[in-house]
Write a structure and sequence with these properties.
Blueprint: E1 3-10, H1 15-24, E2 28-34, H2 35-40, E3 42-43, E4 49-50, E5 62-69, H3 77-86, E6 96-103, H4 108-113, E7 119-120, E8 125-129, E9 141-145, H5 157-169, E10 176-179, H6 185-192, E11 198-202, H7 205-217, E12 224-228, E13 239-245, H8 248-261, E14 262-274, H9 278-288, E15 290-298, E16 301-308
Parallel strand pairs: 8-9, 10-11, 10-13, 11-12, 13-14
Antiparallel strand pairs: 1-5, 1-6, 2-5, 3-4, 7-8, 14-16, 15-16
Helix pairs in contact: 5-6, 8-9
Bound molecules: S-adenosylmethionine (SAM).
Function: Methylates ribosomal protein L11.
EC number: 2.1.1.-
Family: Belongs to the methyltransferase superfamily. PrmA family.
Amino acid sequence: MDYKEVTILTNHEVEPFIADILDELGANGVVIEDSAEVSKGRVDSYGEIYDLNPADYPETGIRIRCYFSAFDYKESLLEDIKQAVLQLHDIPVTDFAVSAADIKDDDWENEWKRHFHAFRASETFTVVPSWETYDAAPDETVITLDPGMAFGTGDHATTSMCLKLIEKYVKPGRSVIDVGTGSGILSIAAHKLGASPIRAVDLDKVAVRVAEENFEINGCAAHIAVDTGNLLAGETEKRDVILANILAHIVDLMIDDSYKLLNENGIFVTSGIITEKEDMIVTHLEKAGYRILEISRDSGWIAVAAVKEVA
Ligand SMILES: C[S@@+](CC[C@H](N)C(=O)[O-])C[C@H]1O[C@@H](n2cnc3c(N)ncnc32)[C@H](O)[C@@H]1O
């Protein structure tokens, strides 16, 4: 079947919402290229800094590439995307352009996989696509991933900030629940650090299937229970750590439940929160009884680690 590659150029503020919009409209695989990445400089597994090729990135804002099968693509699609973006509440859309091109080679999957390569996502975790071979250095812990249609390759600021907080706060033998597991990346990281037992849930059945496959690839399927689930609804087992990288207004809905479900001195690691929503989330966390341990910031997003201290 032929595929269409749809390219969108827009400003950073739209980024948190674009994947959901494209998903609703039937996109297969979404790749986000951020102009801010070029100025960061990357460090490879041997500590050498390398530059990204500016030609691969937009000059300003973000470029989103996504893929639609001929079956899902219709003439009105570009206009539908534009209208959905322009109707976002309270989000300034200062730049917007959308275009489509044919992909003739029947190989859209490889087209978007072209953009995903092994990279160091945190101090110890290196994410390696399942189709690449990689020689890990002794200080690296490899997470092998095929994210398929699910979110979570690790190169998004929210995921890498979560990985860094997990490195710090998840200890061997701690019980974990990963809410909105996506590709399963955070659960795999927790497992590699010795956490147990681990449960992963996602509202999206496709994400649950992808996470299961990634648990298999990483040899941890027997150690992570994965299921569909809506936030913490129906969860009764107390946990030492709760992970949730979802959007701020959704995280907000689970703050009180997370506090109830945590053991004493348990830790809530959460991200998916744009800086504009920091005050709202921090105020709610403190009201629920949490003490904020730290807040990380990257590319307009924050991640929070908070502890349930019981006097
Ligand atoms: C931003 S992705 C995070 C994926 C991965 N945990 C990571 O850190 O990269 C958010 C995930 O939350 C899931 N999600 C959204 N709303 C949810 C809900 N109410 N309950 C459970 N999962 C939800 C989405 O399907 C998506 O897979």
